[in-house]
Input
Amino acid sequence: NAGVTQTPKFQVLKTGQSMTLQCAQDMNHEYMSWYRQDPGMGLRLIHYSVGAGITDQGEVPNGYNVSRSTTEDFPLRLLSAAPSQTSVYFCASSLQQGRGQPQHFGDGTRLSIL
Amino acid sequence: GQQVMQIPQYQHVQEGEDFTTYCNSSTTLSNIQWYKQRPGGHPVFLIQLVKSGEVKKQKRLTFQFGEAKKNSSLHITATQTTDVGTYFCAPGGGNKLTFGTGTQLKVEL
Output
């Protein structure tokens, strides 16, 4: 199993550009989520999904969209990139949430917005 | 998701010294998870605590869940350079898994 795969690993965007961060898992996990990590801020939940076709907002959802058309994939879209979205983005998955399953994280995408 | 406060934010220790990080909540937690993130890496699951007063050990790491299930701690005995990283607690239950702000541990030789 590859686990949780995130692409790209690094990306530089200009303000106003859009892009999609990809996340895929091959563990048949129901729960997937996106976090952003900024210095001194820990991990903040952006969006999450409890299963295919179901998504919901986390702590900091503004400026981001998600969809979950398959169990395996959970892409994160930045509609119009802003410098405040410069961060490291982590995708995570678990078998089920709310039942104490450990989260498996991808290696992260380091995103810079100029 | 439930909110927790994690202290301290930073800790520098000499190799061989002990280290403790604390995770405190104003509400009762159903369970709590602990993760470790090495510099430049991603968070890795360490353990989950569920029962009131639970204590679990992993080699030099000791995890505790308070009797009231409102706080938790991670204690490392005789730190080593391999312990360097940021330790996060994450209160479980519900669909929103949020994380504490983490404690960054630096170990000096």
User: Anything to note?
Assistant: The interface with chain B takes residues 31, 33, 35, 40-45, 48, 50, 56, 58-59, 90, 92, 97-98, 100, 102-108 of chain A (CB under 8 Å).
